[in-house]
Amino acid sequence: MSNMPTQYNEVGPSWKSVRSIALMGLLIALSAVGAMVKLPSPVGTIGLDSAPGFFAALALGATGGMIVIALGHLLTAMVVGFPLTLPVHLFIALQMAMWAYVFRRVNGQFGLTAAFAAAVCLNGVVSSLTMLLLGGWGAVMAVMPFLVAASAVNVGLAAAAYRGMKGIL
């Protein structure tokens, strides 16, 4: 996979190559494994599923990361039976895809540290507001610390893996 930008995907390498699609498949499978690793929380769907998606956003471009992270969240929610209902989990998957896109863009413009901070803030704090629809501010405040901690772990793992593999990809 070349590090040269392509005309088809201005935010990163093309995700349409056979190698990229195979890597996406491996990262989605890794998301499924991460979905089995639960971090204690009131909702039960917080796990290590998004690290491969955030990694994919850096390594494969925004589109690849968006696909991997959305499917990773849906796998996590499926493992525990969609406790927040399927429509809410589809909305959360869409949110996470947007956060992967922002993670990629911020990394390109401001660096990995700023991208880490943005992704943790968006995935931890802003995503917690989804609970406002289901349980009010009490639910938001109950979920937020767990989601911020899990976001820091997931984004940190992705950033460390990307930094370590940057020359290989």
UniProtKB/TrEMBL annotation:
UniProt keyword Transmembrane present: yes
Transmembrane stretches, start-end: 20-39, 51-75, 81-103, 110-134, 140-162
A UniProt-annotated Pfam family: ECF_trnsprt
Keywords, sorted A to Z: Membrane, Transmembrane, Transmembrane helix
Entry GO MF terms: transmembrane transporter activity
UniProt keyword annotation of Membrane present: yes
Highest rank taxon of the organism: Bacteria
Name of the molecule in the record: Alpha-ribazole transporter
Record organism: Heliobacterium modesticaldum (strain ATCC 51547 / Ice1)
Taxonomy of the source species: Bacteria, Bacillati, Bacillota, Clostridia, Eubacteriales
